[in-house]
Write a structure and sequence with these properties.
By secondary structure, the chain is of the alpha+beta class. It has helices at residues 7-17, 46-56, 67-76, 142-152; strands spanning 28-31, 34-37, 80-82, 90-98, 101-111, 114-118, 125-129, 135-140.
């Protein structure tokens, strides 16, 4: 029996199945000597959500709690800016003001003008319209092209 993992399809399915998952909701850290959930029960989990999925597939070097660190790691790991969204690309929204603070945001493009990203109110990833006018950048990794090509063979 010959088994070949379809990486691109598995990557997209991991993103789809992350919707409503509490898996990304809590990250414990020691802050000034005290144990603290630095995501505030998922309110600040977008970079955790994206970086964990990317790390599972070997597309970044580590898990990130903040968007700027994730974007830096993505660039170092071979991610490139693209002009048009592609299924599975990473979306990077610039700074927005919400819940009393200003933060950047990341998520995944899933086609049909939809994205999956962490929702600050619910603390879990949700599917939503992707708001292209608010995007800072879109990123694509060449491995995704390789995986797509090997899926067609």
């Amino acid at each position: 029996m010959k088994v070949k993992i379809l990486q691109y399809e598995s990557y997209l399915e991991a993103i789809r199945k992350s919707v409503n998952s509490e898996l990304f909701q809590t990250v414990w850290a020691e802050v000034d000597g005290k144990k603290k959930d630095i995501t505030n029960r998922g309110q600040y989990s977008c970079a955790i959500h994206v970086s964990r999925i990317l790390l599972w597939f070997g597309l970044v070097q580590e898990i990130h709690a903040m968007t700027p660190g994730l974007v830096k790691d993505m660039k170092k790991s071979g991610w490139e800016k693209i002009q048009k969204p592609r299924l599975g690309c990473v979306l990077h929204w610039g700074k927005t003001y919400s819940n009393g603070s200003e933060n950047e945001h990341v998520g995944f493009y899933m086609g049909d003008e939809k994205a999956i990203s962490n929702n600050r109110d619910s603390g879990v990833p949700v599917e939503h319209y992707y708001s292209p006018e608010k995007l800072e950048a879109m990123y694509w990794h060449p491995k995704l092209d390789e995986w797509m090509g090997s899926s067609r063979e």
